[in-house]
């Protein structure tokens, strides 16, 4: 599939903006564009290079490299010194997604599109939904925090919501590979920055909203408005989604889109709710009632109250999309989600849980579940840190959250970035009220925690989940919590 330079120009002009064009000849209008790229290193012959002005870099500076690599045209915000034909707009990101959708033949129109937004639970919910859709016989792509899947190949994800041209290329790859659906995490950053432009969703989902990314959004209202963009700007006609009825922001969404959102929750007034549930170390049994449907009895291998909510969320969204048998089978067969309450048993009878929880509410939820499942007699050691350049008020709150359920805390580094890890650890320690140690080196902290375990003890390592690196200053150090635990286990 390819389009002409003229096709792209006409699409942008149809949006109403006064567009400047720089061309060498009228023949430029017939140039064939087969790809849209925002990273000059990935440009190949036939690519339209998008010069994005970001916080840390300016794509206009790489137009020459893009031209050398075979770019056939530029989408930019000011004229650059190049012989390539140029379309000049006020803000490239405002058009990049829709231009990419045009070039890749509007892939989201060919897929059942499910988008999941919220603070906690997005990743697990997408895994459950993909399992349900695949149980129905529907090949399903996945774009999220942990992996990207085009229906044939799974690979490690770079970011939750990449640039819109990448999203559109990934969707096109799913279509090419025979996928009939895509399940996607939609981050607040991605929504606010327009990375979803060009994609429309059949089933938008809202999980919950807690303080996070407030260094970027400044306050909860701005954070909510960014999440709301999924439902306001990126939905297909007559969409039917789901929102958390127990969450005040979810209630707001339901009130704004009453005909298009089904509320789920533990509240007896929710349209979809849990009638009964029992969660143990080996899984969860639950019954779900949804208005207009029969009650479902389900078994899930996932544990914990928050996974009851994640399952309820996924089931609510899928009622009426696939048949009930597929829902029952999909929930039963959902795979363990890497770094999401990932359990690793040790030979001495102790066990380790690795989880991505990095906010106070998420840490409190994870530790609360483990305490509830394990009982009061088992010792829990909690290892965590906090990311540099992130919402600093969360640091003492993380210490408080861990102290509610853990017997001991080891404070370590997370992705400190440009902050001093010792300063971050000190702020966390200000909220800790149980015995604690500060071990900045994360591999050493994990090793120390493991060596201190006795039979029946539980070590909970949180904050990074499936991530395979630690960011400190300008260094990206390879490290994975679960792999470190398994290596230690296998050597003892």
Spans of at least 5 consecutive residues whose pLDDT stays below 50 are none
Cα end-to-end separation:
55 Å
The shape is globular
Structural class: alpha/beta
> What radius of gyration results from the CA coordinates?
24 Å
Major beta sheet, specifics?
11 strands, mixed
What value does the average pLDDT take?
94
Quickly list its features:
34% helix, alpha/beta, single chain, 16 helices, 11-stranded mixed beta sheet, 492 residues
Can you tell me about this structure?
- This protein has 492 residues and is an alpha/beta fold.
- 34% of the residues lie in helices and 23% in strands.
- It has 16 helices and 26 strands.
- The protein has an eleven-stranded mixed beta sheet with strand order 11-10-9-12-8-13-14-15-16-17-18, with helices on both faces.
- A hairpin with a 5-residue loop joins strand 19 (342-345) and strand 20 (351-355).
- The longest helix is centred in the last third of the chain and has 15 residues, at 360-374.
- The model has no long low-confidence stretch (mean pLDDT 94).
Topology:
Elements: E1 3-4, H1 5-14, E2 20-22, E3 32-33, E4 35-37, E5 47-50, H2 63-68, E6 73-76, E7 86-88, H3 93-103, E8 112-117, H4 122-135, E9 140-143, E10 147-149, E11 154-156, H5 164-176, E12 181-185, H6 188-192, E13 203-206, H7 214-217, H8 220-233, E14 241-244, H9 248-256, E15 261-265, E16 272-280, E17 283-290, E18 296-300, H10 305-318, H11 324-332, E19 342-345, E20 351-355, H12 360-374, E21 380-384, H13 394-405, E22 408-411, H14 421-429, E23 436-438, H15 442-451, E24 458-462, E25 469-472, E26 475-478, H16 481-490
Helix pairs in contact: 3-5, 4-10, 4-11, 12-13, 13-14, 15-16
């Amino acid at each position: 599939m390819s389009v002409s330079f003229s096709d792209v120009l006409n699409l942008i002009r149809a949006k109403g903006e006064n567009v400047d064009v720089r061309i060498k000849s009228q023949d430029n209008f017939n140039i064939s564009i087969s790809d849209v790229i925002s990273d000059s290193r990935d440009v190949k012959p036939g690519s339209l290079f998008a010069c994005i002005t970001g916080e840390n870099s300016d794509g206009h500076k790489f137009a020459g490299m893009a031209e050398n690599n075979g770019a056939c045209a530029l989408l930019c915000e000011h004229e650059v010194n190049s012989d390539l034909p140029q379309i000049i707009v006020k803000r490239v990101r405002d058009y990049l997604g829709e231009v990419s959708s045009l070039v890749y033949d509007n892939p989201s129109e060919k897929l059942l599109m499910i988008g999941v937004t919220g603070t906690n639970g997005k990743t697990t919910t997408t895994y459950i939904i993909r399992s349900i859709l695949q149980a129905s016989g529907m090949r399903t792509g996945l774009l999220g925090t942990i992996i990207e899947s085009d229906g044939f190949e799974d690979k490690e994800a770079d970011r939750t919501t990449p640039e819109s041209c990448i999203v559109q290329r990934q969707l096109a790859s799913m279509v090419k590979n025979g996928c009939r659906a895509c399940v996607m995490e939609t981050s607040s950053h991605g929504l606010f920055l327009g990375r979803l432009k060009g994609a429309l969703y059949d089933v938008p989902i809202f999980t919950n909203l807690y303080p996070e990314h407030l260094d970027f959004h400044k306050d909860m209202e701005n954070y909510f408005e960014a999440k709301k963009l999924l439902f306001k700007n990126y939905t297909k006609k007559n969409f039917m989604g789901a929102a958390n009825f127990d969450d005040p922001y979810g209630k707001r969404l339901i009130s704004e889109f009453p005909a298009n959102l089904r509320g789920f929750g533990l509240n007896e007034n929710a349209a979809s709710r849990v009638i009964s549930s029992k969660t143990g170390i080996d899984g969860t049994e639950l019954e779900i009632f949804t208005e207009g449907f029969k009650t479902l009895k389900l078994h899930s291998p996932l544990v914990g109250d928050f996974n009851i909510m994640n399952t309820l969320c996924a089931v609510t969204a899928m009622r009426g999309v696939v048949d009930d048998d597929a829902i029952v089978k999909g929930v039963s067969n959902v795979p363990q989600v890497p770094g999401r309450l990932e359990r690793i048993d040790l030979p001495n009878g102790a066990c380790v849980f690795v989880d991505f929880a990095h906010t106070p509410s998420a840490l409190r939820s994870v530790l609360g579940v483990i305490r509830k499942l394990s009982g009061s007699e088992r010792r829990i050691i909690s290892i965590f840190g906090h990311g540099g350049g992130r919402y600093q008020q969360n640091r003492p709150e993380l210490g408080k959250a861990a102290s509610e359920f853990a017997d001991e805390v080891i404070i370590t580094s997370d992705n400190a970035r440009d902050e001093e890890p010792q300063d971050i650890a000190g702020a966390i320690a200000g909220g800790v009220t149980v015995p604690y140690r500060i071990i900045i080196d994360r591999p050493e902290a994990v090793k120390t925690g493991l060596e201190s375990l006795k039979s029946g003890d539980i070590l909970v390592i949180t904050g990074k989940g499936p991530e395979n690196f630690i960011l400190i200053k300008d260094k990206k150090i390879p490290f994975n919590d679960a792999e470190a635990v398994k290596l230690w286990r296998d050597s003892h």
